[in-house]
Recover the amino acids of this structure.
């Protein structure tokens, strides 16, 4: 029943989602009160690992330890579920034929799934956090559509990404030596698809037609 194949449709969705937020910039004030634009770094990471990496010192050498700069952003894929509301006839097929190679390819109807992503924003002060939030919210009302090249038979698939929830957390716990945490968490739902294997075979090169008259004689 099961055969090995690879479409990378989920990986492409993860990359496409991350590309939405890779160029977010904020304004920061230098010590001389001048302004500069700062591109917020983005990485793929779970929330716990993300916070640990920022709050703990990282080691370059045995003698040199540094802190990860902020603000930072991270995202991860946290789950997915079948979407019965977008169910289609699973026996339907999409077919193509290459007239040069005389090879036909077919693919059964894609299966709809909802993929849940979380996006995390970490800053030291509320002003920078709100700057980033303000650059995200206007584009989701409540969805933003991206187009992805899923496979050779689905080269431009529209994927709605819906902003489902936004949370803002301010952590003041601990003594004065602890760093203040302001974390925004966005929950997104991407209405995407997964695809089965693409099958190929020889196409019809020379058709043969047999015609008979009403008396059964071949013409």
């Amino acid at each position: 029943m099961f055969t090995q194949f690879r479409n990378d449709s989920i990986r492409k969705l993860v990359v496409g989602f991350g590309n939405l937020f890779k160029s977010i910039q904020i304004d920061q004030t230098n010590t001389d009160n001048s302004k500069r634009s700062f591109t917020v770094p983005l990485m793929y990471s779970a929330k716990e690992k993300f916070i640990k990496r920022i709050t703990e010192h990282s080691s370059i050498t045995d003698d040199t330890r540094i802190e990860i700069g902020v603000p930072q952003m991270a995202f991860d894929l946290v789950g997915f579920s079948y979407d019965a509301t977008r169910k289609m006839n699973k026996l339907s097929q999409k077919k193509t034929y290459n007239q040069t190679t005389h090879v036909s390819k077919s693919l059964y109807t894609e299966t709809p799934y909802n993929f849940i992503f979380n996006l995390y924003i970490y800053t030291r002060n509320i002003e920078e956090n709100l700057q980033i939030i303000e650059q995200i919210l206007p584009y989701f009302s409540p969805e933003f559509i991206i187009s992805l090249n899923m496979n050779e038979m689905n080269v431009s698939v529209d994927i709605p990404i819906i902003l489902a929830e936004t949370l803002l957390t301010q952590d003041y716990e601990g003594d004065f030596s602890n760093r203040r945490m302001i974390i925004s968490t966005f929950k997104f739902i991407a209405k995407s698809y997964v695809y089965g294997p693409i099958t190929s075979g020889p196409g019809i090169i020379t058709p043969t037609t047999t015609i008979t008259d009403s008396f059964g004689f071949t013409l």
